[in-house]
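Quick one:
INPUT:
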């Protein structure tokens, strides 16, 4: 789906000084906005869980909200752009940087109101709220639904499920449930909700865009799109997802990785990170805020944990009945950490390619998984155009692990040691200390300090 959304998910814009925050309206939609901002800006798991429990947003996970909170430092409300009793459109700016985002809530008329649809999208450079106001009419709604039906029927990984989703959309359409929707964002969110109600597939998403999407070209939609200058700039700016690489106490390596970037750009960064840790005695991979990425990068990074070529995973495509095997890359340069204990930190927001990395190592008994059960998305997705401002991510393949002969779809990866995500690093370090003590030839090492002076 990267080709469809990178331009609006990754761009920065706007100035950093604003007038006083606008008043939040005293409506059901305003109540939800206020509760969301309070929970988000608190950064506290209990408050985030309470928000999800009370208002029940259909899409999203508490850990993903907390991950976004850690990345942004929280949000400041900048403007209320449209306010109706059960619908609200607004803009926020992150506290840790210049990024502004456009969001909306559609809520039910209840006590408390329930979130029917919600969305938060980074604003493109120079964009205004009016630029984000994608409007739909009967003709556009019909075209989008027809396009979804065609794409799912042709490509979705499970044909029987595709048929059920199409039938459900047609039933909602015939009942007139979409007729009153004029906001493209609300329409996309509602379609996604209805598709996931049948498939329970969190890779499946209808996307609304403020810009006009390019026309389809001759490129195979099931192949990764070319890496354009904008996406390359994002990868470079974000250091290919490598947030932190360091040595902790007791010579334990620590890698904080928030995405698996394409190897065409990011293999040198991954190699530099692993070569920095070439002489550690254990290594911790922190994937608590990692939403996935390129399976080739999963294989590349895994290559540093094995001393022999190892079969990691397979991806089977329904349309072409084709299986692609993924193995470690012996050519990955540098020293391998094939004997060192490995720990992977997870949260409920760990998703897709990050889950594959975790599941592969768990199945091979190469790592101890510490944290929370992951999000449960095992279907590679292709992004495709539906209309000028609409696209869809269609899961077209499924992972098949060579050991378990299955995958983590809908279930997630269960940790070996289950603890809340915010306690996972401390727990992994404790486990590593115990393991390193077992391996030490003369027991635990002495306390840290300068070495004794050399004596002749």
């Amino acid at each position: 789906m990267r080709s469809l959304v990178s331009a609006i998910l990754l761009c920065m814009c706007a100035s950093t000084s604003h007038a006083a925050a606008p008043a939040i309206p005293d409506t059901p939609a305003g109540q939800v906005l206020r509760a969301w901002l309070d929970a988000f800006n608190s950064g506290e798991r209990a408050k985030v869980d309470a928000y999800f429990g009370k208002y029940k947003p259909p899409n999203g996970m508490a850990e993903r909200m907390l991950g976004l909170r850690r990345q942004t430092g929280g949000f400041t409300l900048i403007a209320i752009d449209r306010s109706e009793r059960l619908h609200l459109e607004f803009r926020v700016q992150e506290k840790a940087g210049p990024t502004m985002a456009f969001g909306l809530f559609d809520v039910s008329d209840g006590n408390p109101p329930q979130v029917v649809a919600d969305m938060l999208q980074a604003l493109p450079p120079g964009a205004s709220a009016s630029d984000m106001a994608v409007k739909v009419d009967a003709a556009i709604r019909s075209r989008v639904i027809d396009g979804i039906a065609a794409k799912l029927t042709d490509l979705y990984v499970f044909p029987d499920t595709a048929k059920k989703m199409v039938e459900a959309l047609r039933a909602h359409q015939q009942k007139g449930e979409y007729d009153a929707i004029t906001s493209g964002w609300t329409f996309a969110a509602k379609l996604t909700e209805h598709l996931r109600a049948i498939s329970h597939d969190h890779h499946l998403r209808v996307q609304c865009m403020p810009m006009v999407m390019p026309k389809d070209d001759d490129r195979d939609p099931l192949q990764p799109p070319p890496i354009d200058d904008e996406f390359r700039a994002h990868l470079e700016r974000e250091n290919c997802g490598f947030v932190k690489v360091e040595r902790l106490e007791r010579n334990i390596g620590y890698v904080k990785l928030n995405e698996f970037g394409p190897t065409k750009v990011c293999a040198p960064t991954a190699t530099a990170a692993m070569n920095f840790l070439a002489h550690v005695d254990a290594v911790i991979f922190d994937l608590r805020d990692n939403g996935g990425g390129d399976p080739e990068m999963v294989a590349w990074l895994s290559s540093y944990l094995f001393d022999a070529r190892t079969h990691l995973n397979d991806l089977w495509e329904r349309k072409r009945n084709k299986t692609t095997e993924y193995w470690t890359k012996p050519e990955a340069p540098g020293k391998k950490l094939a004997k060192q204990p490995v720990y992977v930190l997870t949260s409920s927001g760990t998703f897709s390619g990050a889950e594959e990395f975790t599941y592969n190592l768990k199945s091979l008994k190469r790592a101890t998984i510490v944290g929370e059960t992951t999000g449960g998305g095992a279907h590679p997705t292709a992004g495709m155009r539906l209309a000028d401002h609409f696209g869809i991510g269609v899961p077209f393949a499924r992972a098949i692990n060579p050991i378990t002969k299955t995958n983590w779809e809908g279930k997630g990866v269960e940790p070996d040691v289950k603890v809340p995500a915010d306690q996972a690093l401390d727990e992994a370090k404790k486990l590593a200390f115990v393991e390193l003590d077992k391996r030490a030839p003369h027991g635990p090492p002495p306390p840290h300090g300068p070495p004794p002076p050399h004596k002749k």
